[in-house]
Amino acid sequence: MTDEDRIGRLALDDFRHTALGDVGSTNTECLIRARAGDPGLHWITATRQLEGRGRRGRAWASEPGNLYASLLLIDPAPMDRLHSLPLAVAVAVHRAIQAVMPPGSNPVSIKWPNDILIAGKKCCGILLEGEGLPDGRHALVIGCGINVARAPDHGLYPVTCLQAEGAAVSPEELFAHLFRSMGEVLSIWNRGQGIAEIIAQWRAAAGGIGQKITVNLPDRSLSGRFEGIDEDGRLMLDMGAGVVHRIAAGDVFFG
Which residues belong to the signal peptide in this entry (predicted)? Predict the structure, then answer.
């Protein structure tokens, strides 16, 4: 039975985990294994990344003390359903971080599409990458860099780390929560068939709905009120005068 056949019926025992020391990037390690025939559902974690990367090819500082984890999926869903996967990933990472926060701590929220914020400060980077394989399969990697002990400043948003927010947790303990929450959420997502439930959970954890935001697109910036997301997970930006833009990708800034 392939990943494509069974991803909607996942159990935690279906997942494997390989822990490494220094690597180029955990996403790259997953793709190397995919090209060699790895069947997927394989987590790779590392103590440090020497060539960590974020969205749009940005460098991602990856010193020891934080969690660097990537999950390899093979043929996780039909291509026309993959657009909802980043929302599911955000829900899973939000659950894992929320689980280790102490009572009374600052609120944890999701910023569209899949950044995790604590009191408005970014504590996590998520990068999904994929490629077609020579045998016709499609590899997709979910990369998560979570600030546990360090908060590297990447220059775009205010940042924080879990320990600064009062969470007495190690990268290994946090990964145990992520391992569980990702398996549970991927089962709900069910190869894209569970998008309605994922969107409901995403909205419940979202920050900034109703606030003024600016969305930076490759060719321009748009400002308006964040009205939430539509049934396909696109950001709805109310520009006034009855004009609502639906945006599939962009960088969001509050205020």
Answer: none
